[in-house]
Structures are given as C-alpha cells and as structure tokens.
Write a structure and sequence with these properties.
Blueprint (H helix, E strand, L loop, with lengths): L5 E4 L4 H12 L4 E5 L7 H6 L7 E3 L5 E2 L2 H11 L11 H19 L1 H4 L3 H19 L12 H16 L1 H5 L4 H12 L1 H6 L14 E3 L4 E3 L1
Parallel strand pairs: 1-2
Antiparallel strand pairs: 1-3, 2-5, 3-4, 5-6
Helix pairs in contact: 1-3, 1-7, 4-6, 4-7, 6-9
Length: about 220
C-alpha cells in the first residue's frame, strides 16, 4: 500500500524541474525515481503510456502526468509562499508554446532540421517580453517569486545554457539577474539533486526540502 506519492523524474528536463520546485516549496514529501530516458521503467509506462516525465502517482492510484497539473496539485495542498497567487496563464502559455517551439529548434537543430540562428532570434524576441516585465519588478508577478517564475525559469535556463557566452552578452540585464537569483536559490539547488537511475527493487529515496536533504 503506497503511503506517499511517487515522482518519476529526469534531472535535466525543464518540465520535471518545475514540478520538483513546486513539490519542494509545498513540502510535499514523495518518493523520487530518476528515469533514464533511453530505458524508461515499465512501471512508469504502465501508469502513463505517453511515457514522458514528470509523472506523479498518488497513493490513491491517481496519476498526474502534466507538469503544470503537478505544480497546481502540490500548491493546492500547501502553498506557504503564495505561489498560486503569482501565476500568469498567458505568460506560461507563451513559454510552453512558441518559446518552447523555438528553443527546441535552436538547441536541437539536427533533430528538427532547423536553422538554429533563426530560432534563437525568434526565442530572443519572446524573452524581451520577460525583460520588460522584470524592468519594473524583481519577479514576474511582483516582488516575490511565484508559479510563473518557477514554471518559466527552467526553460530560460535551458536557452541560456545552450550558448552561455552569447546569452550573457545580450542586452537583457533584468532577465539575466532574475535567472541568476533563481539559480542561486537554495530551493533550486535542492531540486537539482543528482540521483542514479531508478530500478525496481531499489530502496526508496524520499524527496523533501524539510531538512534540505534526500533520505534513502
């Protein structure tokens, strides 16, 4: 009988990253199972046939396999920092739609047979919207981080890391400072724990920021 949720995750996946951030900030203790994408565990595929991370299996058997739904579920249970009040549906939709489209074709041109320079430019234009927002406030919805910041930051990070020297040279001072603050936060460090790929029979690893550690 399950007593805690099980999270199937992949450390570098931005969708899984934002789910982990919400689980941590909501103090939702769960068992974390790191997935090797080229050898996805049958246990994950059986509960979520689309076989993409993140997947959260609840103790009652319900399965949540969309990252934003995981975030909202966790924060709906416990939202000590008021993240839900600082969401932005339109901003998140622009990130998950057009920005992610261009990000993929910039980062993986061989996979998409794309012109990376063209898609980098298009993605950069979308980042100027965030830059304008952050010029007047430290976070995307005011003075403190919230759902919008956590949902969007992993994708901005991925864009920046594709060519960090080029990104750092862009005239995006407010966005760059916002990204650095988010990456330097203890919450992000806790979310980026390195784990070995899970295999059936492994001892459970509990994922929690209660003591900023991961307990096997």
């Amino acid at each position: 009988m399950m007593t805690r949720p099980i999270l199937y995750s992949f450390r570098r996946c931005p969708y899984a990253m934002r789910a982990r951030l919400a689980l941590l900030v909501s103090d939702t203790i769960c068992e974390i199972r790191e997935v090797k994408l080229v050898a996805k565990p049958a246990e994950m595929v059986s509960v979520s046939p689309k076989a993409t991370v993140p997947v959260l299996v609840l103790p009652d058997g319900r399965v949540i396999d969309e990252s934003l739904d995981i975030m909202r579920w966790a924060l709906g249970r416990n939202d000590p920092e008021g993240w839900l009040a600082r969401g932005d549906e339109a901003l998140i939709a622009a990130n998950d739609g057009p920005f992610k489209h261009h990000l993929d074709r910039y980062k993986y041109p061989d996979r998409h047979a794309s012109d990376p320079a063209q898609h980098r430019h298009a993605a950069l234009e979308l980042l100027h919207v965030l830059e304008a927002r952050l010029a007047s406030q430290p976070c995307l919805r005011g003075d403190a981080p919230g759902l919008a910041d956590a949902a969007i930051m992993p994708f901005v990070r991925q864009f920046a890391q594709t060519d960090r020297a080029w990104f750092d040279a862009r005239p995006l001072p407010h966005l760059q400072a916002w990204l650095e603050r988010r990456l330097a936060a203890p919450l992000f460090s806790a979310a980026m724990v390195r784990l070995q790929p899970w295999q059936a029979g492994d001892a459970p690893i509990l994922f929690s920021d209660r003591e900023s550690q991961f307990l096997s």
